[in-house]
Specification:
Blueprint: E1 2-5, H1 12-21, E2 26-29, E3 54-56, E4 62-64, H2 66-76, H3 89-114, H4 120-140, H5 154-163, H6 177-187, H7 190-200
Parallel strand pairs: 1-2
Antiparallel strand pairs: 1-3, 3-4
Helix pairs in contact: 1-2, 1-5, 1-7, 3-4, 3-5, 5-6
Length: about 200
């Protein structure tokens, strides 16, 4: 397998999960500006949408969209409990969180704040909306270590990555006690540390 990624983006999520799973996987960086891979390939030929991540499978086919890739990785090693078993209520709860993070936090919130074309007025509205959405996640973590309980899952990796953008776009997390404790817990995981170290070397 080969994972195409760009440091600092949501493609950090499958990189964390690959490290958690202990799965050997070639990883190739993609330039956000040129849409070229580190080896000089045209990334648009790999994923016509141009964004990361994309996972090239052993048969040559390409899987796109972060939450789908995350679950694919998790299902390769069920013993790691990175995702509940397919068909269980817990699996659907995890998918609910993945959808929430993708739509309410990532695309509907943080992505707007990174958009240079968005007005300051609109960004203030988005930050206010994000505050309410983040409060929901904060409340969910009040009595548990991770979103689904005590097992670290795909949803936790994704939430951690998205929350990591907060400082860059002036999203204040100081009032979210449980989210901040969650960030500290996840940041200390060896998988996260290994991805951070790999990016620091580049």
């Amino acid at each position: 397998m080969k994972l195409y990624y760009t440091p600092g983006t949501c493609s950090t999520t499958p990189r964390i999960l690959l490290a958690e799973a202990g799965i050997p996987c070639e990883q190739e960086a993609v330039s956000f500006k040129t849409r070229q891979t580190a080896s000089g390939a045209d990334y648009l030929q790999i994923n016509p949408n141009g964004y990361v991540p994309a996972l090239q499978l052993d048969d040559g086919s390409v899987l796109t969209e972060g939450p789908a890739i995350d679950q694919y990785i998790a299902d390769l090693v069920p013993a790691k409990k990175l995702a509940p078993a397919n068909g269980t209520p817990e699996r659907y709860r995890m998918q609910s969180w993945l959808n929430y993070i993708a739509t309410e936090l990532h695309k509907g919130g943080y992505s707007v704040l990174f958009d240079r074309n968005a007005t300051d007025e609109w960004k203030d509205i988005v930050r206010a909306k994000l505050g309410k959405r983040l409060a929901h996640a904060d409340a969910a973590l009040a009595d548990r270590s991770f979103l689904l309980g005590e097992d670290f899952s795909c949803a936790d990796a994704y939430l951690f990555v998205v929350l990591g953008w907060s400082t860059a776009v002036q999203v204040d997390l100081s009032g979210f006690t449980h989210l901040n404790a969650f960030i500290e817990r996840v940041a200390a995981r060896p998988s996260v540390q290994s991805v951070k170290a790999a990016d620091t070397k580049k």
